[in-house]
Amino acid sequence: MTHIAIISASVGAGHDGAAAELGRRLTAAGYRVDTHDLVELLPKPFGSLLSRGYQRQLQSAPWLWHATASTFDRAVPAAAAARATRTGDRRILDVLRADTAAVVSTYPLASQMLGRLRRSGQLAAPVVTYLTDPYVHRTWIADGVDATLAVHAATATQARRLGARNVRVVAPAVAPGFRPAAGADEVRLARRAFRLPPTGPLALIVAGSLGLGRPERTATDVLGTGLATPVVACGRYHPLRRRLAALPGPVPLGWVDDMPTLMRAVDVVIHNAGGLTSLEALAAGLPTLTYRPLAGHGRANAATLEQAGIIPWVRDVEQLDDALRAALGRPDRRSAHRAAPDPVAAIVGLIDRPSATREHVPARWPGPRPRGAGTRLARRPPTRSHR
């Protein structure tokens, strides 16, 4: 059986979510898939800094995360970040099987490492980057990567401007359960499953698996409009759920395993990051708003989605009333995703293609961005296999 490897990173849930769905589809297509966590492949201090530093900055000092993300979105710092990951190259090669037919990255630093291994000749299998964000941060683009997959046309344009090769627009890697509700009965059953109010509009507020941002203020602002009851998905951040439970009005939820059913229970989604949840909401046919986006990548994603006419960015509480009213006034639920090739087809196409003979040239960082736009290890890191 042909093997394909996916390298994600347990930094939030969006990268892992995309990796899981790609793995499910590839498995269904007859491939054996091994999924690896970059946080575990990197030396421990670096991996811990990657996962915990992200969360702590956004929770305690969002201005610092914004400054960090902005700094590494420039050519010289981005190249430095790529070089800093060299210590993990050997570990990636150790966990990849000799018969691996392709490697897929759903995290920017993984793309940097895989691209470097590919162009140096240490990795023979083709490498694919699946972009999980609408905005293309410079660290996503690495010379040596054979194909870059984007969900939005605007994202594909940004990737090409940064020098990505073989950029393709594909369908989002969201589970098939994310679809519009079939009718009032299905909505009623979904609300009952989560013990939600049986009547009246519901606004689902999502803050990622870490409960980042200011979801409490968002819930208060939604209540202030009088237009909908806020339902807040708190993820794994239990203190947020406890704080919301003490407030009159909001309905706080912990970690949700069945997000497709929850989305069929609500009338509008309000997000703050622009990642996987926004794609799921659009697939479910739900009107979606960006409000109080996270610093750094959240704001960049919000700008990209708004400029492309995909999701409006509500910038203050004064605009929220009109935006919610317009969203709730939409008469029907239809998936907002246009027909596009399955990302699995693009990945498999690289496997079936004869081995590339072109030589990968050293990375050449483009100019300023336009405004608006060895020895085997004794202990192998844990591997998640899709069977």
UniProtKB/TrEMBL annotation:
Top-level taxon of the source organism: Bacteria
- Ranges for domain Diacylglycerol glucosyltransferase N-terminal come to 15-167
Q: Which SUPFAM superfamilies match?
A: UDP-Glycosyltransferase/glycogen phosphorylase (SSF53756)
Question: Sorted alphabetically, which keywords does the UniProt record give?
Answer: Glycosyltransferase, Transferase
- List, in alphabetical order, the GO biological process terms annotated in this UniProt record: glycolipid biosynthetic process
Extract the ranges annotated as region (Disordered). 355-387
InterPro entries under this entry? Diacylglyc_glucosyltr_N, Glycosyltransf_28_UgtP
Q: Which molecular function GO terms apply here?
A: hexosyltransferase activity
The entry's cellular-component GO terms read:
membrane
Compositional bias annotation for Basic residues: 377-387
**Could you tell me where the Low complexity compositional bias lies?**
363-376
Q: Which Gene3D superfamilies match?
A: Glycogen Phosphorylase B
Keyword Metal-binding assigned: no
Q: Which Pfam families match?
A: MGDG_synth
Q: Which family does it belong to?
A: Belongs to the glycosyltransferase 28 family.
Under PANTHER family, the record lists: MONOGALACTOSYLDIACYLGLYCEROL SYNTHASE, MONOGALACTOSYLDIACYLGLYCEROL SYNTHASE 1, CHLOROPLASTIC
Q: What is this protein called?
A: Diacylglycerol glucosyltransferase N-terminal domain-containing protein
